[in-house]
Amino acid sequence: MVQKYNKDTEQKILAVGNELFMEQGYYATSTRQIAKAAGITQPNLYHYFKDKETLYVAVIEKLLTEVGEDLSGILQQHLDFQQSLEAMANYLMTTHYFDLNRMLQDLAKYITPVTRYQIFSLWKENYRQPFEDLFQRYGHEMRSQISPELAARHFFFVLSPYITQKEQAIDEGLSSQTIVDLFLHGIIES
After folding, report:
1. Total structural domains in the chain?
2. Cys-Cys with 71: which of 35, 102, 127, 130 at CB 3.0–4.6 Å?
């Protein structure tokens, strides 16, 4: 029996896959679970995505593309340096609840190296590049030995514990403004 392609079904699979992968992780999520939650059969799911890893990549790609567009949109608002960084950090902290540590472990343990590289490239292009662009734009305000790439990498190191599932947040009382202020100005009075 030939299955007809349906864009709504594909979007439903991606939405359910996103929810389950982000909630349970890659390993703990099965295509059977996703199909059931999407209201389709597992063979029908395979009509859209050939295997779990292909579906995972599609879910991550959709998520990362949306994030990249939203972060770039914040950059287009022409806020000042600190306001832009705060708005971008706040967006990630309040919009994307997932367990970043579990995601990184899943990538290291269960995803093929080729797919890992593909996901890292997508992450770099959509998550980190807008921050590099911001640091490039305001590079004249940064120390000369700090590149936009280094600044973006370090900022993600600082921010990553706060980009997590709401229930697991390290410190919900720490605002994006406080994180950015500490990142930019440190803790020592000048």
Report:
1. 1
2. 130
